[in-house]
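Notebook entry, structure prediction.
Reason for the run: the old model in the group folder had no record of what sequence produced it. Starting over properly, with the input documented here first.
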Amino acid sequence: MVGWLNGYYDWIKAVHVMAVIAWMAGLFYLPRLFVYHAERATVGSELDRTFRIMEDKLLRLIMRPAMITAWICGGLMVAMGGLDFSAVWGWAKLGAVIAMTAAHVWMAARSKDFAVGRNTRSGRTYRLANEVPTVLMIVAVVAVVVKPF
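New structure, fully documented this time:
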């Protein structure tokens, strides 16, 4: 089905890596924005509006396109045999990516909460959320590079 793409595997992988870097940067930065938004801005203030703009643009213009590109390129590489599902590491990588996507969706929902002035979470919650992408990144990178299992 995608055999004609095999000659482009390295290019697809390069685009995938770039998309993942952009996506991860957003996954690291957005919860930090939420920390400051939750702790320093009052609903309706100029600071609140500034944070809402920053959060929205980060999600819409960087994170969402990067996530979609990472999934498309990753899916193409899987279709070309680039992920070994007969080994645990392939499933660990896929699990980490699904969990990153869930984290992204959760953050997008929190951004909507801020946008309508109904954030109920503390800065501490967002500080903890900030650690999730790091753990998932470690799992994904070790699974693919080291293939320990």
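Summary: The longest helix spans residues 46-79.
The old model has been moved to the deprecated folder.
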